[in-house]
């Protein structure tokens, strides 16, 4: 076999081994692209039942006790016996109150069966029963029918007026109260259509007790902790909840995942590598875009055409066009629920928009700034927004009053970006004066300033637990900071950020960083190493920003080409890239005969 044949054969045998090696790092762990390849895109099911709906009533005493019992079981299983006993002691007080209610229900049943209506009235006046209007109507109806049966018509008439009339809306049928009135003029209860099957006083009392028992589920009430709790009930419910989150995810794992936290919803690790939708309609460059609310089912974008647009994340259709600003939109933000969005504009205002109605509208216009407002952000827990702009001042706006609640002064040049930490007690602002400032929300005092940037700061972002800060600056770099120590961890390079535009970056998943660039690409970096993992091609002009949605597991980017794009992980695209890598394996081949060394590329022989 000649040297070309040896090269081809050896390359064929080793190319797969080389690729496998590339999928593991020096510690034998899967690389990020390999981890991302373990998921398949299946899309979102728009008809899935959402956990925010009232699947059960958390105020229901039975539900509350079920939760307590599951917690007690878990604590016992894990050996937290002292904690379990403390909870049980507190729960016993509640159960004792429930036991008293159970005794009352037994007394009430006996009083009904014995026809002791004075005792029935006394018991029904207690809080546990007096709000059960439908049952009270049934009780009073039985008493009334007994008056009619005994021909005590005057008592019946008085009772009808005093007890039954106020509860008329709780009658079983639209004509029941009318027939009760009619009984005052008949010779027999059976003459009224609603009571033609009346079986007598005794049978009526029995049916009333059955109705009462069914309504309150007395026989199933909890007593002395004797209710059976299936083994590992809490853990099983948590597993079901995680399985539901995985099932509702846009990507399904090819192998069963191991979830390492229950404090956050499941979010598959993917590295978007392809455009999913292109949203067109803006007549000017799109300065900003972000997912609306925590679920990200829609996207809001702001443009130099002075308008905002709301897009459907799944289809890319435009849902609303928001008009009202008289200058370009620099930044947008949405509240956690996704019901309202805020926009920062070059017309010196911030506008609050209601986007959940069939026709979206401006709810409020917030003033106070002198010059362009470059940035706006919703407070994570309260009804406030924070804004900053050309006038160098950060402002906190109260949305209940529409007034400026507090101002934060200290920057020497325009404020380019403001955010809040996850618990909402700190404002972080980046500025054209090359600094980042941390402000105490309550006192308004600047408690820390970072001055290490060599260019204007164009954006700041914080991770989900508030320990890391990402900054972008006009020296072609993004920097990752340890917030607690206020020290830089690493510098991210490769993108372009030098012109007058606000090129921004942010966190994606727990391991990735993503940002825009003046070269028209979306860059994805490994948070741990700072390496570039992916460059996303598609936009035809500079990309201002790219934002990640944990629920949607996608990026949205905004660009100078007047479009908004969403990016997702396409397994087919990954497989094609994999095949290309296989074909480019270079193999050094030692040829002892002649002591020569040659390097061959498979591309040369195809």
Automatic annotation (TrEMBL):
WD repeats lie at residues 279-321, 322-363, 366-407, 408-449, 450-491, 510-535, 536-567. The keyword Metal-binding does not apply. InterPro entries: CTLH_C, LisH, SMU1, TPR1-like_2nd, WD40/YVTN_repeat-like_dom_sf, WD40_PAC1, WD40_repeat_CS, WD40_repeat_dom_sf. Coiled coil: none annotated. Residues 101-155 form the CTLH domain. Its main location: nucleus. Keywords: mRNA processing, mRNA splicing, Repeat, WD repeat. One of its GO terms (biological process) is mRNA splicing, via spliceosome. SMART domains: CTLH, WD40. Pfam families: TPR1-like_2nd, WD40. It is found in: Nucleus speckle. GO terms for cellular component: nuclear speck. It comes from the Eukaryota. Belongs to the WD repeat SMU1 family. This is WD40 repeat-containing protein SMU1.
């Amino acid at each position: 076999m000649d040297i070309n044949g040896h090269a081809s054969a050896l390359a064929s045998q080793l190319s797969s081994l080389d690729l496998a090696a590339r999928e593991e790092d020096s510690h034998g762990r899967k690389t990020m692209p390999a981890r991302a390849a373990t998921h398949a895109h299946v899309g979102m099911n728009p008809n899935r039942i959402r956990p925010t709906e009232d699947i059960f009533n958390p105020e229901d005493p039975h539900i509350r006790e079920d939760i307590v019992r599951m917690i007690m079981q878990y604590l016992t299983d894990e050996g937290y016996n002292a904690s379990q006993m403390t909870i049980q002691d507190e729960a016993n007080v509640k159960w004792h109150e429930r036991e008293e209610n159970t005794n009352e229900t037994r007394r009430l049943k006996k009083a009904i069966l014995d026809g002791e209506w004075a005792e029935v009235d006394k018991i029904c006046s207690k809080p546990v029963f007096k709000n059960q209007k439908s049952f009270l109507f049934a009780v009073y109806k039985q008493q009334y029918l007994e008056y009619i049966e005994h021909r005590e018509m005057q008592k019946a008439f008085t009772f009808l007026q005093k007890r039954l009339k106020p509860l008329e809306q709780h009658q079983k049928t639209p004509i029941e109260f009318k027939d009760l009135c009619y009984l005052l003029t008949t010779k027999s209860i059976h003459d009224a259509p609603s009571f033609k099957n009346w079986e007598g006083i005794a049978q009526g009392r029995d049916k009333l007790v059955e109705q009462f028992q069914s309504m309150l589920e007395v026989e199933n009430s909890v007593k002395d902790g004797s209710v059976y709790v299936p083994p590992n009930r809490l853990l099983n419910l948590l597993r079901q909840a995680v399985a539901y989150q995985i099932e509702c995810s846009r990507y399904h794992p090819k192998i069963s995942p191991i979830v390492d936290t229950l404090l956050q919803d499941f979010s598959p690790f993917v590295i978007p590598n392809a455009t999913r939708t292109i949203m067109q309609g803006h007549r000017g460059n799109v300065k900003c875009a972000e997912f609306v609310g925590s679920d990200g089912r829609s996207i809001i974008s702001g443009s130099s055409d002075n308008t905002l647009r709301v897009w459907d994340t799944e289809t890319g259709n435009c849902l609303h066009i928001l008009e009202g600003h008289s200058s370009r939109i620099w930044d947008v933000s949405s509240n956690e629920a996704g019901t309202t969005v805020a926009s920062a504009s070059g017309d010196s205002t911030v506008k609050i928009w209601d986007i959940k109605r069939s026709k979206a509208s401006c709810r409020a216009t917030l003033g106070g700034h002198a010059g362009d407002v470059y940035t706006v952000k919703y407070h994570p827990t309260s009804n406030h927004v924070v804004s900053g702009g050309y006038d160098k001042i950060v402002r906190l706006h109260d949305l209940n009053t529409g007034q400026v609640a507090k101002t934060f002064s200290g920057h020497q040049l325009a404020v380019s970006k403001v955010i809040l930490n996850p618990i909402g007690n700190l404002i972080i602002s980046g500025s054209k004066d090359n600094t980042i400032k941390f402000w105490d929300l309550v006192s308004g005092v600047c408690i820390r300033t970072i001055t290490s940037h060599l260019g204007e700061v164009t954006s700041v972002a914080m991770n989900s637990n508030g320990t890391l800060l990402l900054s972008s600056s006009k020296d072609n770099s993004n920097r990752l900071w340890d917030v607690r120590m206020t020290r830089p961890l690493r510098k991210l390079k490769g993108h372009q950020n030098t012109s007058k535009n606000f090129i921004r970056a942010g966190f994606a998943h727990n391991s990735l960083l993503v940002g825009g660039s003046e070269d028209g690409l979306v860059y994805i970096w490994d948070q741990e190493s700072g390496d570039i993992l992916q460059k996303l091609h598609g936009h035809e002009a500079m990309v201002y920003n790219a934002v990640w949605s944990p629920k949607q597991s996608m990026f949205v980017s905004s660009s100078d080409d007047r479009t908004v794009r969403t990016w997702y992980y396409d397994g087919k695209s990954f497989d094609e890239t994999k095949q290309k890598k296989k074909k480019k394996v270079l193999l050094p081949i030692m040829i002892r005969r002649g002591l020569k060394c040659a390097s061959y590329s498979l591309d040369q022989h195809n």
